């Protein structure tokens, strides 16, 4: 009978047999799958594991520090954090088209990951958080859903002498099992049950051109929304929730003065498969509170709207 405990034991045994005493590289994103792989490999091979965490500058408030705290500080995982905000923002300058942004972010991500992986001496294996549904899906093409690292199987940018073989310890598991394993291995509940976050991150939640100023405003608004969802026990009742930055200015009044500032949209959906979704009917009082907090606490944002579009016809993300 398969229990979480013996799924873990089995996976650990297989990894040890496979990689022996050789070194393994893992791209850590902070998402559930790569996090569980990191925790599992830490248990299985400890010091042989090096994680590369690319901070794109398009992550949520304090996300990079949280990833480092969870893995490097608390679990003793060797993690190389690459602060690449400048490179990402530079590459995205002047680019407004969503698909062009996705391509730039994906390409740069792979490039930076490869640069770092190539510096890890004697690395022979590339670990990935591929799970069973990814294996089934990989033949089909779910547009827009680009698992950057996952689709990057041959690690093209690495030197010939450094061809990495794949190790995918979650390949036979469903998401629920992956989450159970994560909890069992000591990952925080909020990390294991966090809403999905797209690979391109805030790059597709800032409409049009991505700028640091916009990303900073969006991070603060988004953090308030998420904090209040947790506080009101609503986080686990919605499938995905986030703020979107609209680079248009709207007039408002604040005290005696007029403000002419940016707009943020809140998005929250309920869905089982993310292929169709309904907008979450969050309580008006809750939305009122979130709106007030954002406008009061985030100078630069003067208006908050709530997205009441279903999928279809709208998508969950705005880009
Ligand atoms: P849409 O916006 O297509 O989103 O209704 C469906 C789900 O996919 C996520 N999403 C992405 N995930 N790279 C990703 O890794 C992407 O480019 C991307 N675009 C959308 C979205 O967050 C939602 O969960």
Automatic annotation (TrEMBL):
One annotated GO molecular function: ATP binding
Residues binding ATP: 29-35
Known pathway: Purine metabolism; GMP biosynthesis; GMP from XMP (L-Gln route): step 1/1
Enzyme class, spelled out: ligase
All copies of domain GMPS ATP-PPase, residue ranges: 2-194
Recorded catalytic activity of this chain's protein: XMP + L-glutamine + ATP + H2O = GMP + L-glutamate + AMP + diphosphate + 2 H(+)
Record GO cellular component, one term: cytosol
EC number: 6.3.5.2
Keywords associated with the record: ATP-binding, Glutamine amidotransferase, GMP biosynthesis, Ligase, Nucleotide-binding, Purine biosynthesis
Purpose: Catalyzes the synthesis of GMP from XMP.
Quaternary assembly: Homodimer.
Protein known as: GMP synthase [glutamine-hydrolyzing]
Organism: Methylococcus geothermalis
Primary gene name: guaA
């Amino acid at each position: 009978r398969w229990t979480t405990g013996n799924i873990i034991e089995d996976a650990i045994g297989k990894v040890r047999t496979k990689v022996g005493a050789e070194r393994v590289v893992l791209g850590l994103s902070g998402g559930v799958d790569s996090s569980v792989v990191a925790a599992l490999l830490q248990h299985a091979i400890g010091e042989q594991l090096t994680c590369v965490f690319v901070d794109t500058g398009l992550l949520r408030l304090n996300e990079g520090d949280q990833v480092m705290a969870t893995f490097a500080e608390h679990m003793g995982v060797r993690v190389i954090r690459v602060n690449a905000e400048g490179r990402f923002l530079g590459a995205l300058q002047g680019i407004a088209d969503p698909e062009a942004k996705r391509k730039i972010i994906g390409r740069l991500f792979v490039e930076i990951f490869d640069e770092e992986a190539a510096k890890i001496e004697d690395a022979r294996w590339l670990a990935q958080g591929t799970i069973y549904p990814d294996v089934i899906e990989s033949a089909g093409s779910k547009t827009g859903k680009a698992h950057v690292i996952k689709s990057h199987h041959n690690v093209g940018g690495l030197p010939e002498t450094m061809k990495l073989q794949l190790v995918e310890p979650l390949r036979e598991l469903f998401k629920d099992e992956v989450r159970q394993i994560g909890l069992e291995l000591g990952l925080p509940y909020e990390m294991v049950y966090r809403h999905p976050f797209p690979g391109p991150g805030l790059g597709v939640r800032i409409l049009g051109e991505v700028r640091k100023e916009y990303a900073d405003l969006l991070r603060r608004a988004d953090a308030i929304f998420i904090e209040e969802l947790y506080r009101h026990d609503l986080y686990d009742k919605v499938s995905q929730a986030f703020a979107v930055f609209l680079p248009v200015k709207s007039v408002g009044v604040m005290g005696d003065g007029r403000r002419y500032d940016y707009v943020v949209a809140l998005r929250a959906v309920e869905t089982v498969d993310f292929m169709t979704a309904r907008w979450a009917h969050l309580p008006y009082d809750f939305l009122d509170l979130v709106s007030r907090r954002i406008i009061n606490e985030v100078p630069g944002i003067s208006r908050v709207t709530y997205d009441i579009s279903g999928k279809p016809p709208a998508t969950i993300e705005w880009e």
